[in-house]
Specification:
Layout lengths: L8 E3 L2 E3 L3 E3 L16 H9 L6 E6 L17 H16 L4 E5 L18 E2 L8 E4 L3 E4 L4 E2 L2 H20 L4 E6 L4 H6 L14 H4 L1 H14 L4 E5 L13 H12 L6 E5 L6 H10 L4 E4 L8 H10 L5 E4 L1 H5 L3 H7 L34
Parallel strand pairs: 3-14, 4-5, 5-10, 6-9, 10-11, 11-12, 12-13, 13-14
Antiparallel strand pairs: 1-2, 7-8
Helix pairs in contact: 1-2, 3-6, 7-8
Length: 367
């Protein structure tokens, strides 16, 4: 082991003390009637302030951006004030935290919206997936409403407004969620994007919404406080891509004028490593990688190998941080690690959220 994990790295305006970031993870514990995070959420992130960088759960910049029950927003004064309590506690504990901005696109449902209208998407193509609800079970995603060009401009402006709100709430920056089959990814993917205008068709058109969103957020808060998450070739939420290598090469080239804090790749399968390596070669800035623990081994050891090989500058881990608030101390000690309880991932109370135990201190040796 070269211990590359424990070396510092700079992203944007931040010097990270090591290279194990906390990946964004939906936890569905915001208020059901306003998308407001709670004191429990502040405790949850404060406990994990030892991460090189925390990237929060996906947070919607507009009502129609919501894709799941009890996810937080960043478009009302109450939401901003509640997030401020989170960032204050993380910073007081010595941490650094980015807000992930997520518009779910067609991964939404009228159930989630006060007006009961359809979710919005690049094209009127349903995901084939369903929304989980507490009172009505699984509700199939409907065929979404196709966005007009004016609608697209409004969403881009909402991303910028959400970014400004995030800075007002004390975040160190924002990460646009362009992965996992959500709205930005839907525009990138030819299986979801059937448009024939300037936002559809060839790769240079399908990347347009992603680039416009990055530009708007960069202009709002600074490129050095802006990041983008992508997942080339990932079929999550019913998205399919027939030309991922071409699309992401074009996207990376188009992002070159924006010196982002980092680019974040979620590598959904081992066979996509070639696309990851192509992005790594083409992207001049810091690269964060979440390889989703392909090898079946220890994720921390996998992270060390990725860093030592130069495949990434930072590695983000999800379940390991979820179950081990003191992951850095455990990594330095070589474990042991708590295992995550999948039954408590989404919704609920403190159980499986803030009650994972810390590593027991070593007993003093007899003198």
């Amino acid at each position: 082991m070269t211990n590359k994990i424990f070396t510092s790295v700079r992203i944007g305006r931040l010097d990270l003390p090591h290279r194990l970031a906390m990946a964004p993870m939906t936890r569905s514990r915001a208020s059901a009637d306003g998308g407001v995070v709670s004191e429990l959420t502040a405790e949850y992130y404060e406990q994990r302030a030892g991460a090189a960088l925390i990237v929060t759960e996906g947070t919607q910049p507009r009502v129609r951006g919501q894709g799941y029950i009890q996810t937080p927003g960043i478009h009302t004064a109450d939401q901003v004030a509640a997030w401020r309590k989170v960032t204050d506690r993380v910073h007081a504990a010595g941490g650094r935290i980015f807000l992930q901005l997520l518009h779910a696109g067609r991964i939404g449902h009228p159930y989630l919206y006060p007006d009961g209208e359809l979710p919005e998407a690049p094209s009127a193509v349903a995901s084939g997936e369903s929304l989980f609800t507490n009172d009505q079970g699984l509700l199939p995603h409907p065929v979404p409403r196709e966005l007009t060009a004016d609608d697209i401009g409004e969403i881009v402006r909402d991303f910028a407004a959400g970014a400004r709100n995030a800075i007002e709430a004390g975040f160190d920056g924002v990460e646009l969620h362009g992965a996992n089959g959500y709205l930005i990814h839907q525009f990138l993917a030819d299986g979801a994007n059937r448009r024939t205008d300037a936002y559809g068709g060839p790769a240079e058109n399908r990347i347009r919404f992603a680039v416009e969103s990055v530009r708007a957020v960069s202009e709002a808060i600074g490129a050095d406080r802006t990041a983008l998450r992508i997942s080339p070739g990932n079929n999550a939420n019913g998205v399919t891509e027939s030309d991922a290598a071409e699309v992401y090469a074009a996207l990376v080239a188009a992002l070159a004028p924006y010196p982002l804090a980092y680019l974040h790749i979620l590598e959904a399968a081992p066979e996509l490593r070639g696309v990851t390596e192509r992005v790594r070669r083409d992207w001049a800035g810091p690269l964060m990688l979440n390889a989703m623990h392909h090898g079946g081994g220890d994720p921390v050891e996998d992270a060390e190998h990725l860093l030592a090989a130069g495949t990434a500058d930072i590695v983000s881990l999800g379940a390991r941080w979820l179950a081990n608030p003191d992951l850095l101390a455990r990594a330095r000690a070589g474990g042991p690690y708590n295992e995550a309880d999948e039954a408590t991932y989404y919704g609920g109370d403190h159980r499986g959220y803030t009650d994972y135990p810390a590593l027991a201190p070593l007993a003093p040796t007899a003198g």
